[in-house]
Amino acid sequence: MKLLGILAAIAMGLVAASPLAAQEAAPACHVGAYRLTDGSIVDIGKAPGAKLRWRKMDGRTGLLTPGEGGHWRSTLGWTDRPDGKDAVFGACGDSAIRFDGAAGRRLDFDMREARFASGDATLSGRLILPKGAGKVPIVVLVHGSEHDSARDFYALQRLFPAAGIGAFVYDKRGTGTSGGTYTQDYLVLAEDAIAAAREARRLAGDRVGRLGYQAGSQGGWVAPLAAKIEPVDFVIVGFGLAVSPLDEEREAIAEGIKLGGYGPDVVAKALAFAEASIAILSSNFTAGFDRLEAARARYKDEPWFRFVRGDVTHIFLETPEAELRARGPALFAGIPLHHDPMPILRNLDTPQLWMLAADDLDAPSGETSRRLRRLIADGRPITLAVFPRTEHGIFEYELSAGGERLSTRQPETYFRMMTDFVRCGRIDGDYPDIAVAGAQPR
Q1: Is residue 199 a contact partner of residue 166, using CB atoms and an 8 Å limit?
Q2: What is the mean pLDDT of residues 264-276?
Q3: In which band, very low, low, confident or very high, does the pLDDT at 27 lie, cut at 50, 70 and 90?
Q4: CA triplet 439, 160, 232: central angle to 5 degrees?
Q5: Which end of the chain is more exposed for a tag (fewer CB within 10 A), N or C?
Q6: Given pLDDT bands bounded at 50, 70 and 90, which one contains residue 440?
Q7: Domain 110-244+338-437: top CATH class
Q8: Helix or strand or coil: residue 417?
Q9: How many CA atoms lie within 13 A of 321 on its CB side?
Q10: What is the structure's pLDDT at 333?
């Protein structure tokens, strides 16, 4: 999920259309979390087109494509390379599965659909609890900048309950079946998250234990704000930022140039593209295009030009000005470009787990990591985990022949770290190779 709306840009047609924009009806009757005879859990969720995506709690994942004889063939991560696994499902209404040679049955959860009000919008949500009558911790899933339905595509809504933790998932305003107008206004989105947390408490009743937020990408700005307005028991931020959206663009441009092997002198030149994009965003797509074209004309023949990426700059470079002027204002509606998250984080008493990707190009983690470490030194209740060799989304990756990153899986400890923190507010276990900072409360 891109923080300033890359997925939204794709969905709205500012760049080449994603398969999600022409989503076919996936075989929804197979969606669910299944327990296999070896005791492991495999989650089956929707994927672009008439395909499915499997995930395991240890981070492995693959894309399932229907084949002959009812077999669904798997490819590794997002690589399109066969991984030798397949799945066979029973008929719709049958909870049976055979995955990678092991039989299994779909888990049964306590599930309640909801419609709840937040400001001027009515949002669609879903509470999913493990079967039983006892108290369980509940995680409210807060979105990134995507336009897609979280209720359709978030696998954590099933993985958490399969691990004994409740989940509340909701479509953000203007997406899925939620009402209201899509916005990137963090305050509005924080108020929506608060409304979702209240609804989760109401629906769960006596079963509510600890309750907090899990937020990815743009949600890293939203969830701490929501927790400051109305306290919760914990906040988990994955691949989010402790800098402003404008500084994110500057950092993303710089990281792309550094990845290309160039030094500070070239970074200084490339930042002209970041400043042009910032001018376009700041003017609500009414100005700044001349600056972008001037930078392109000056540097397009430089060998480093192909490494100019950023979070939004590469889309601006690839999209006609008239299209950007027409569609940009709706795409970036309400985004607080100068939002400084630090005052919130300095004054937030809620225990937080920040999980960052060391090689993140979309939301570079360097300055965010430095700022969080300073807050930790000042005694703030923050735990920081930096995952090596991972990109945005905390995905491990490999490089194609052309140098493109292809996501393969999430780290083995990623989901376990979240469940540990949800249950007890600390990550006191063994997390090999993960750089962890922050005191662990007991």
Answers
A1: no
A2: 97
A3: confident
A4: 50
A5: C
A6: low
A7: alpha beta
A8: helix
A9: 10
A10: 86
Task: List the chain domain ranges.
Answer: 31-106, 110-244+338-437, 245-331
Coil, helix or strand for 380? coil
Residue 12 pLDDT more than 80?
A: no
**pLDDT confidence of residue 184:** 93
* Beta-bridge partners for 53: 45, 63
CA 71, CA 65: separation in Å to the nearest integer? 8
Q: What is the DSSP letter of 218?
A: T
The span from the CA of 234 to the CA of 265, in Å, is: 42
Determine phi and psi for 361, rounding to 5 degrees. -95, -25
SS (H, E, C) 72-93: EEEEECCCCCEEEEEEEECCCC
CB atoms within 10 A of CB 395: 25
* CA gap 129, 209 in Å, rounded: 12
Mean pLDDT for all residues in the chain: 92
pTM: 0.92
145 has pLDDT over 60: yes
Query: Do residues 56 and 159 lie in contact, with contact meaning Cβ atoms separated by under 8 Å?
Result: no
Alpha carbon distance 318, 191 (integer Å):
35
